[in-house]
UniProtKB/TrEMBL annotation:
This is Sugar phosphate isomerase/epimerase. Keywords: Isomerase. SUPFAM superfamilies: Xylose isomerase-like (SSF51658). The keyword Metal-binding does not apply. It comes from Paenirhodobacter populi. It holds the Pfam family AP_endonuc_2. Gene3D superfamilies: Divalent-metal-dependent TIM barrel enzymes (3.20.20.150). The lineage of its organism: Bacteria, Pseudomonadati, Pseudomonadota, Alphaproteobacteria, Rhodobacterales. GO terms for molecular function: isomerase activity.
Amino acid sequence: MPHPISLAFLTTFEASPVEAVRIAAKAGYDMVGLRILPAAASGEPDYPLLSDDRTLREVLAALADTGVTVGDMEIIRLKAENDWDLFARFCERGAALKAKHVLVAGDDTDPARLTASFARFCELAERHGLTADLEFMPWTAVPDAAVALRIVEDAAQPNGGVLVDALHWDRSRTTLEDIAALPRNRLHYVQFCDGTVPYDPSDEGLIRVARGERLMPGEGGIDLIALARVIPEDITISVEIPHRELATKIDALGRAEMAIAATRAILRAAGRA
């Protein structure tokens, strides 16, 4: 069974949610990822899809018109203190959009409290038909796959998962064997991109690349073919390739088309087309 492919929010970051749905359809994606809450603590605008019913109706109409579905929604950041009412509204939007997954980041340095918060969010997400997928990132309180899996397993929620991002896999202490050993029921989708090798290992360097300097699959030094061979054969691949400089030269549709073509080339090389 071929991998379903989803257009991640950051690949076409400048597009409105309606535009993103239509771009995904034109470029041949099965799904689209939508950002509902800001990823950064400051400096990022609010996203109208959370509270604007007109925007929601327009997105639902575009989904119905194109046949594209919503893969993941971004982003829940779990901190020492969390706005659970806001998280509830986020999940209600996810249910309205018939989304499948929620990208979760762990920013609480207290492991026990973070695990409890993750379990609580999983319960909230499950009531709305959503998985909660904890993404490990080297500069966060969840720096690698081992820590992510421990939190997910200790939270003991059926919809909890570990989100594998190719960039963070390559930049963290996580090995290919670690990815291959992740329980199937804890993997709901993965994120593909490429990156330069060698690279700046500082937090600032890692964040800069992650948010705006990723490369198309096959253009960098990450062994995506090996990664493709160890992930489940039917799992959704979310293509997440923010490249701010490229966006000044090629429009969102053009970049989306480049990204899916490059991803399919990796899958063919891995025998997963």
